Amino acid sequence: MDAEHDLEELATMVASLRRHLQRRERARIRNLPIDRGADGKAPEASQASWLRGLEGGLFSDDREAYRATSLEELRAAIGDCRRCKLWPGRTHLVFGVGNPRARVMFIGEGPGRDEDLQGEPFVGRAGQLLTDIIVKGMGLRREDVYIANVIKCRPPENRNPEPDEVEACEPFLLKQIELIKPRVIVALGKFAVQTLLKTKVPIMRLRGVWHEFNGIKIMPTLHPAYLLRNPGDKKLVWQDIKKVIKEFQPPVM
Ligand code: URA
Questions:
Q1: What's the rounded mean pLDDT across residues 31-59?
Q2: Superfamily designation of domain 13-28+49-247
């Protein structure tokens, strides 16, 4: 049984390494020399806290992204991205929108048709519902919060993101979080929360309970697109959002 488990783990690692090498190939990365100073030591990345050390790992293809000190620098580092197979189908890469110093960050799954066309997250029907949650529910403006997705390009026919796509985009989401330093993340739906918490636990069991992500509180809740299909569950989201509001009592924004 243990040997079987070890083999499965090895196969997962090999698949991940293969995707990593394919991404490097697509991005035409042949070599990533590390600049070394006169003392022969690699320079310290200007990293705060929890991303430190990932330059050779998660960010091995993306030194510029790893070192970005603003959202603008990060966006520039992502460039005309071809790191996964979604790029040929996109109109716009949907990076994120909002206050770069937001206390609350909303993270969804990936752009849909409207978002792809407009280059902004959550602008379609699900986006209108999210805007209602922010404005009518929380008494904030969209510009007060930051909104981003796990993946930045629209999957064909709005299918679920695939593991290689999530893997290719994840460093940029992590970097966005690290730059914004929100006090609370509201994870919208299973992809956002499962990606951040590295879990397969179903959203219905994760939602409504505070979780922790590198010192940031995460409140998982149901995705607005799910609510459009299941309006009866809006009350669950309201329960979750009330916990977020309470976190900011007395109001700080
Ligand atoms: N659904 C998402 O998860 N993100 C968007 O930006 C739009 C719809």
A1: 54
A2: Uracil-DNA glycosylase-like domain (3.40.470.10)
